[in-house]
Design goal:
The complex is a heterodimer of chains A (230) and B (414). Chain A is of the alpha/beta class and 230 residues long. Chain A contains 8 helices and 10 strands. The chains are: A alpha/beta (230), B alpha+beta (414). Chains A and B meet through helix 2 and helix 3 of A and helix 2, helix 11, helix 12 and helix 14 of B.
């Protein structure tokens, strides 16, 4: 599903450049539940941005769903994001003046789904994350855990190939963290590829494969106990 | 253009406007004010124009008056200071020479005379006229009729008098029609009473009697005191005036460069001056109105730039969710156009109300400063098109800025 070969990325800082990713090789197959672990500055966010087509890489190859990603213009990137990827952010990134339902329906707008149809699908996904009754609430009327579940519903609504979660539990307390992780696992169990970025050990433990990143290189890549238990 | 009909597009615009109600309203006021000024100023300018037109209204605006004076240059053996007299032959010559140019030609003889009725009397102008005068200078008749052809051919002793003359010569509530007034010991039957014109007027209180009758009574023979000439449409009135004067000069052996021999008054010239002034006013109005409008539109552009900055994160989210740069751009341009047109419509509505009030307070009665201050639909349409174009152009700037936002940077912003 995601194949990365010898990926390099550096950012210019003044005259120098900061080499963030130093030749990553990573292969994530369909249906995997992977977490990228690393402290801040390890390059994990950069990796997610590249995987999420929000940023371009300098060197190496990136295949998404078998398609080589290169020379993307904004329009094509937008279409690919809309088609293959679902995003879950640390700070939820819901649009504050839209209701939960409208937020979930938003990606479908860009897919060109008619309004009625869109709201119907969005409602289904909201119910899937158990927020059916909150459909017409604005984000600021929801708790952190609820917001993140709305965001997850929004990530799922286009039926993407991969869900990319950037510190999905970073802003949540431990109970809601577990809820959200349970939800992500349920989604994964239904066959969705889930790609989580975190710096929390407890979060990583709940995924099936942990890739540890340090200073722009992968230092370990192993399956977790959770996987072994199943 | 399909996206214009899409309810989503409008939903989005409604959403983003609803988010910033106060700011949107204040922004709208900028453009509203521009359109309001444009409408009110244009309306007022039109009102003034109408006022001037009313002033000249009853008078044929392309007319020349010619009378005689004394010569100021000796010519062909004649001394200077000779009195010239126009005659009926001049009329014939002018009529045939300027067949195509002259529309109406009304000769007139005039005298000041004592007019009496029973024991009341007053000194008034008495003028011998042709019925055609009514076409050059419309007479508003309160009673009866104006002179007609029959009066001329029958040398009828009839008179059309002014309202003031009627008031001075008759008792209250007496029907003047059919009554006789005495001018120079001759009785004339009153056949009409006219209202003094509120507009430009050369006659004051005049008793109009048939030209033929005047000629007989005052023994004027072929003499003519002065004539009024109106030109056909499209004729250069000043050129015609010069030509006619040259013709008259040659007929009466007057030096071609003698400027005093004939007196003339050209109403067209004065009207031209006024028209020029009005055109200048209209230009000024458009200039001020459009400039204010542009300022207002800039305010909208400004506010949209701020909005885009503020919504950087939202735009980033949308981009991450699959919004193409084009859809973002469309959204913002449409928002700009929408705001400008809504503001424009409100401006037109308020402008119309203001014009209504101006008309109500300043536009009534004979001496009103403004008459029917209005703005025509084509002008409103032009203003609207201008608004849409300006709105689009100014929307391009924030729209472009929005597309420059990289989703990654936008999302990083906390």
């Amino acid at each position: 599903m995601i194949r990365i070969e010898n990926l390099h990325k550096s950012y210019p800082i003044g005259k120098d450049s900061l080499h963030v990713l130093k030749g990553l090789d990573l292969h994530i197959k369909e249906g995997e539940f992977v977490s990228i672990m690393g402290s801040s500055g390890s390059g994990k966010s950069t990796l997610l941005n590249i995987v999420g087509l929000l940023d371009s890489h300098d060197e190496g190859k990136y295949y998404l769903n078998g398609e080589l990603i290169e020379n993307l213009n904004e329009k094509k990137a937008a279409l690919l994001r809309n088609k293959f990827l679902g995003f879950v952010f640390q700070s939820f990134n819901l649009i504050s003046y839209k209701t939960a339902l409208e937020n979930v329906a938003l990606p479908l707008t860009y897919k060109g789904v008619a309004r009625k149809e869109r709201l119907k699908i969005a409602q289904e996904y909201l119910e899937k994350v158990e927020l059916g009754p909150w459909a017409n609430h604005l984000p600021n009327e929801l708790s952190g855990g609820q917001k993140q579940r709305v965001a997850i519903a929004r990530a799922l609504v286009t039926n993407p190939k991969v869900v990319l979660a950037d510190e999905p539990t970073g802003a949540l307390d431990s109970t809601t963290t577990d809820n959200v992780m349970d939800l992500l696992r349920d989604i994964n169990n239904e066959g969705m590829t889930v790609f989580v970025i975190t710096h929390e050990e407890e979060v990583a433990e709940q995924t099936k494969r942990v890739v540890r990143l340090k200073d722009g290189v992968i230092i370990s890549d192993e399956l977790t106990n959770t996987t072994k238990a199943i | 253009m399909k996206f214009l009909l899409d309810s989503d597009t409008w939903q989005e615009i409604y959403g983003s406007i609803r988010k910033n109600k106060t700011r949107t309203i204040i922004t709208i006021i900028g453009v509203l004010w521009g359109v309001f000024l444009l409408v009110v100023l244009l309306g007022a300018a039109r009102g003034m124009e109408n006022g001037f037109n009313k002033l000249f209204g009853d008078f044929a605006t392309n007319s020349v008056f010619v009378w005689t004076q004394r010569t100021s240059k000796p010519f062909k053996g004649y001394q200077k200071g000779r009195r010239i007299v126009l005659n009926t032959n001049d009329i014939k010559v002018l009529k045939s020479t300027y067949k195509n140019e002259i529309k109406l030609l009304a000769p007139r003889n005039q005298i000041s005379n004592l007019v009496t009725h029973n024991f009341k009397s007053g000194t008034f102008n008495v003028s011998g006229d042709y019925p055609v005068l009514d076409q050059i200078q419309k007479k508003k008749l309160i009673y009866g009729r104006f002179l007609n052809k029959n009066d001329i051919t029958t040398f009828a002793k009839v008179a059309v008098i002014s309202e003031d003359m009627y008031k001075q010569l008759f008792d209250k509530n007496v029907n003047p029609l059919g009554a006789y007034i005495k001018i120079n010991a001759i009785n004339y039957k009153v056949i009409g009473v006219y209202e003094p014109p509120t507009t430009v007027d050369f006659d004051n209180d005049t008793a109009y009697i048939p030209f033929s009758t005047f000629k007989k009574v005052y023994n004027t023979a072929n003499r003519i005191d002065w004539m009024m000439i109106t030109a056909n449409k499209g004729v250069d009135i000043e050129l015609m005036e010069t030509n006619i004067l040259q013709t008259l000069k040659s007929l009466h052996d007057v030096h071609p460069e003698d400027k005093r021999a004939f007196g003339k008054a050209n109403l067209g010239k004065h009207i031209g001056k006024v028209t020029g002034f009005l055109i200048g006013m209209q230009f000024l109005t458009w200039f001020v109105g459009v400039a204010t409008l542009i300022a207002g539109v800039f305010a909208i552009g400004n506010i949209l730039i701020i909005t885009v900055k503020e919504r950087t994160k939202e735009i980033g989210i949308r981009r991450a969710l699959g919004a193409t740069p084009k859809s973002i751009r469309q959204q913002i341009i449409l928002e700009s156009v929408f705001l400008t047109t809504v503001a424009g419509m409100l401006g037109v509505i308020f402008g119309a109300i203001a014009l209504f009030l101006i008309d109500y307070f300043f536009g009534q009665g004979q001496d009103a400063a403004l008459t029917n201050p209005t703005v025509s639909i084509p002008i409103i349409s032009i203003a609207f098109i201008l608004l849409v174009v300006l709105g689009t152009l100014i929307g391009l700037i924030p729209a472009h800025m929005a597309t420059l936002i990289k989703p990654i940077e936008a999302l990083r912003e906390e």
